[in-house]
Amino acid sequence: MADKGFILCILFLLLFSTASFAQYEGEASPSVASTAEKGALFRFPKAPFSQPDRVFLNRSNWPGYLNYGKEAYERAVVSARSFELYDRLGYRLLRGYPLLTWYETYSDSLALRESRIFRSNQFWQWFDKFVILHDSYRGWNVGVMIGDNVRTTLTPLTLARARWDGVRIDGESKRYGFTLLSTRGQLRHYSSFQTMRDESPVIQYGGRWFAKLGGFLTAGLTFFNQYQVDMEAPKGSFIHGDLPYPMEAPSRIFVRVEDDSPLDGNPAGVYEIHLDIQVRETDGTWEALTFEPITVNGAGYSPMFRRVEGPGEAVDFEFQLPSGRAIRSARFHAKVAGDYRISVRQVHPYWNTEQFLGEEGTIGPRWEDRYWPSVPMPQAHNLEGRAQYPIDFKAIASKNPTYEIEFDAQDPPQYVIVPVTEHRPFYTVRRATGSPDLSHVRMVAFEYGIPVGQRLLGGDIEIVAEEFMLRGELVYNRQESKFPFANDSLGVRGKRFTLDALAGYVNVIRTFHFGKRLLVLGGEVFRLDPEYSGGYDSERGGVVLFTDRGKSYVGVKGREGRTKVEDRVYHGSTQEFALVSDNDDGDDWPDDWPGDEGKFQPRSPEVYSGAKGHSGVFPGLDEDGDGSPDTDRDRNGVPDWSQPFLLYESDAPDFVYGMDLNNNGVPDHRENDAEADYPYRRDMKGAHFFAKFSRPLPMVDLVSLGYYNLREEVGWGKAKGPYVRLEMSHRPTGWLEVKLKDDVKYVRDTIRDDVYIFEIGSDSTNIGSVLVSPPEDALPMKRSLANRAFLSFYLNPTSALNLRMDAMHFLNRQYETSVLGGERQPEDLFTEVAFVGRTDYSRRWEDFELWSGVKYVLKEGDRRSVSPRISSLRFYAPILRFGYHFTPDVVFQFGMSGFKGFPMRYKDRISPDRSYCQRNTIAMIRAHSEDYYGYNITINIGLQHQFMDFDEGGKERDYDTFGFFVDTFCGL
User: Fold this and answer.
1) Are 923 and 898 in contact (CB under 8 A)?
2) Which of 321, 508, 523, 935 is deepest in the core (most CB within 10 A)?
3) Which residues share a beta bridge with 35?
4) What is the pTM for the complete model shown?
5) Closest C-alpha among 548, 656, 598 to residue 246
6) Which of 413, 250, 441, 279 is nearest to 345 (CA)?
7) Cα(820)–Cα(751) distance, rounded to whole angstroms?
8) Could you tell me if 447 and 495 are in contact, meaning their C-beta atoms sit under 8 angstroms apart?
9) Strand, helix or coil for residue 955
């Protein structure tokens, strides 16, 4: 019976299990089918051990018999890192990888407040740091972008960044459009759009909405907010800025008074400065206290009045605040005179919880003295000791500044980080309007605080009709600052205060038709406040923010009895978060980035456009668009206008015609300055009106009359004057054309427009950085009558013969005048004449080709007050080239630049040591292939003879060489 009972039990269990599996499979059949359709290798919808009512203890998962002769093998996606991804609402998205997560949260719980960004390796490697999604629906086109280095603009006065890091959403229909932007900081700043948790994040967001009305009117609204976040604040804000953390009140505040415009000749003066603060008493009441400076250092002539004049001279007032007190606000009152600039800085206690090893063992936690603005550290962002990018506030270009730690035997012990080379930056808060003299005495009051954010709100309009165009923009800028104190246990936070600034412009053009003739009337009116968008000290339109949270210094050891920092890291960062780039060449890289300028590459100074792709050259120097300067196309560091064979089509920069409306001696289309690319410079207001007559007379293409009047608000410069432009052309025959361009102006210009001068060679300074300022504008037209004329002849009597002659004449008649501060411009006359003539002849007979040419250059420059002439040179060069094609891709070539009795000749009558004769002869075979595994290959094999004979300097400068060469080139 026992055996029968055992057998019956076994049979019962088998029947039960069979029914169970049958029922299970029947219920799961839709899931099985859907799983099979998805290409899953295993047919079970669930693993057996996940079933709540298992029959057997056996937890193995046998997939069943598979026959790949009947069914195709299905590859399963295998990845150790990919996993199921769900959105925050619980919907399944896909199986894969999270690329980027950005999380900002404010909470009443300190543990839940965070600013965090996560970016996976796939985001960098697979997508090159950029992801974009695009869709269209019911007439709307929408794009969503997340990534780095996106060219981004809103309006000319608000945002223009060559490389934006963050999130961007764009949408546009036939009548409406919008852009939304958001990011957390910038690259190489203490707050950046990188994988990290930020303790003092900088949030930036904004956008633009526009509407197209009637087919001719476009109106837009723009908003942009830039602010700092205190992650420990009990109540955060997505609108207003805050201190970087709950700061202690400053122990000392320094107020500096200096000459605002050292070059104008008007000094500054200061009589007195005192400080009013609000302090909370122990009973909760507020008391107003007044403080006088404890020390006054700097220039001066009496205790009651101190005079400050010229660069580098200043008066510093030091104020000491009561320690351990809750201070809500501070307000300064200064009695000043003349052309003053007032700036501030502070010292505040900071509780550093870090520990490091010093001379006497482990040091910390401890109280430290920290500074705002913090000491710049360009060596933290450099390339082999050279400054790389000016991310630090008022950065210096010192190669290896050294920082020391000084110990102070106090209780508790303190230490101070002190730079060996003193460089204590100040933050500008007030400047005198114009350039007043010392008789202008006034009382200046200002709130004291640290910048915490700014907002920009603007409107723009554009009307484009058949005969009328109007374009304008007006932007209101509100800047926020707070007194640097916050204590949540006392319920006291520093007072918030704001400063307002405006910027705007209007451009108008009206066209009138008189038969085939046109009259165009136009004008522009503009004003940009000096403190607009970021404050007086802003270089790129962004607010200057500060934090000294994070790591201090690590790895300290003693050397020669002094404790020095071995590994330097930030102890404080005062940085501008730029809104408008300096990108005069219009490429993908700002001009002050190392990816754009070749001077950052010490071993390749000839690489003027940098090593990065899509980086341009100086403005106006790449008319053919090949990415190389037109004056050094082969990038060998030798000017093309003096290089054999290449010199025929290349001219020196001073042989180029171009309008110079800002009167600094450089054609406007070739200017590369160090300013942000606003349509007009900040601290500038003015108006400009003009009239253009098209084809008023036979052979006259254009006559233009204009007048402009500009002035700086806090600067001392002014510029005004009328001008006339003339353009003529005449073609008497089909093979002769004559062109004339001429402009005359009478101007008074004392506005400095400093620009970089493009140079070629190892000693070049082709750099656009606030760390390396451009040469100073010499103001050659303080009061001048100037004329520049350009005459061209083009002759081509046959297709084989071409003749071109260009002549340019420049005159600057300088009148005696007085400049601010008593400086006088003496009466003088400067003239310059330049002539370039070139002729070439070319022929081809089947496989034989011939080209010959001659170029002649003359330049004479004279200044009445200088003897002899300031420039006098002659240059001529004959060139001969011919070739024979053995095959379409193999050519024998022979060339001569200068002949035995007729060499290339350079004659400098002012500096005879630069005069020389030169010959260059080359014979070579060139082979070329356009399909070598997808590459273009060129091989040149030949002989070269070079001869150089200087007029002066001895034989050591001369050479006569003969050599053999093999050159191989590869391209796509």
Assistant:
1) no
2) 321
3) none
4) 0.83
5) 548
6) 250
7) 12
8) yes
9) helix
